[in-house]
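Student: Please help interpret what follows.
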Amino acid sequence: MHRYRSHNCGELRAADVDTDVRLSGWLHNRRDLGGILFIDLRDHHGITQLVARPGTPANEALGSLTKESVVRIDGKVSARGADNINPDLPTGEVEIEVSAVEVLGAAEQIPFTINAEDGVNEEKRLEYRFLDLRRERMHRNIMLRTAVISAIRQKMVTLGFNEMATPILSATSPEGARDFLVPSRLHAGKFYALPQAPQQFKQLLMIAGFDRYFQIAPCFRDEDARADRSPGEFYQLDIEMSFVEQEDVFQPVEKLMTELFTEFGGGREVTSPFPRIPFRESMLKYGNDKPDLRAKLELVDVSDVFAGSGFKAFAGKHVRALAVPDTADQPRKFFDQLGEYAVEQGAKGLAWVRVGEENALTGPIAKFLTEDDVKALVSKLDLAPGHAVFFGAGEFDEVSKIMGAVRVEAAKRAGHFEEGVFRFCWIVDFPMFEKDEETGKIEFSHNPFSMPQGGLEALETKDPLDILAWQYDIVCNGVELSSGAIRNHEPEVMYKAFSIAGYDKDTVEAEFGGMLRAFKFGAPPHGGIAPGVDRIVMLLADEPNIRETIAFPLNGNAQDLLMGAPSEVEESRLKELHLSLRKPQVK
């Protein structure tokens, strides 16, 4: 018999009764019933119940061990009585009469329970992440991640893509976030940058003639944490294709996402095909560029209704309305709570009216609306008795943010929200440039390596803020899964696009010399995308926080509480790297 096990802890069944077996695992739980010990032994594969009778060496050994100790046991498989069968366990029909025990790894008193979710705070969980990962939910999430990545690789190869690796130590690149820098020992005063994405390298692979590339790529960005964004590092499915237009990229990616979310989504319905929503339409209808289409409500611009209105709160402002049907039976509390929610999002309040018989309006602002206002609203919002209408007024971006959140919350509270589905869409036609509100400078709004719609002619003849790019995002259930674009592969277009964003020719050549040099030696039209692996798994696992699907994440302050990173280094190492420190003064 093997030194540690003849079977794993998820393997034994009724057919194994009377078999001598050896198992190894963690002491998951223990119950003492009249001196008889019932032990749940756990390993990667599952749980098996052990029985240790009073007066036996096994009873004494198992009774004195702390939970989470690692043991090897020998014993015989026996059938559980009919009343003791556990239908929730694959091994629930059997138990092991233990005859011998060997302690392989004794455990100290654990800082939180493993066999139940006891509400321990995240900092403690990350400090003892190796224990946290023993919990059933976390173990399941990590194994889901493993299965999803394996499936991605198989499906990408089937779709005709080739897996290739790109460098980790590279040069800085304007991807929109701060780089992590690595000092060079051999080149004093110079630094490598960890890649924010393999953007330039995957484009160079297309120029080199490899046609279809993919990679499960590690990316590094020095940015703050959010529920759907891990600080420091993350993984993405990096994809690039040659001789393609936008729809050519959409087809394999949409097929991949549909298959992944169908296979691992637990029976939840998946959108097919994915609707294409222009960026500006999304901002108007949903208040953002990552709409949660499970909410079956839309915002409507009613600024024109109030353009010359005597209602001073709305006059001359951007006004967005949200019509919510089937609210006739909603109490005043429904309206008050939505108002409180809007305030939490940054609003000063939330104006609203009810629609009654003959489309008569009641509510806090009804008395300020003229007969013409009411007629215009009824027509534009397609109102009927039983509707409620909520209004946001102010600057476009502010109203969009607040009313976009109110839209989803109102749908949930009023029963217009789909549960148990994955609602995908493509957001398309992003603006190529945007204006920095503080400096007034024109900046890239998305990916600087994108092809503008209309090419060089658009860059030379249009207002930069009117130029659209061949850029696109995949969104699912209000979460942005990826960004992508048809790339700019023409040097003159690149020079012009960067000049509009304030980069002179010398700067472009200094920062992107490798890319430009490649463009000048025959570059094919190409495009790609990079869905976030962490976010995909987060949605499939139905977890609210991305850290729940990563084995060893940093905390919200970009710290590794288990390994103690970031850490100080000795002066000798700094000297070797030609570095001296200038720490901020403590006030």
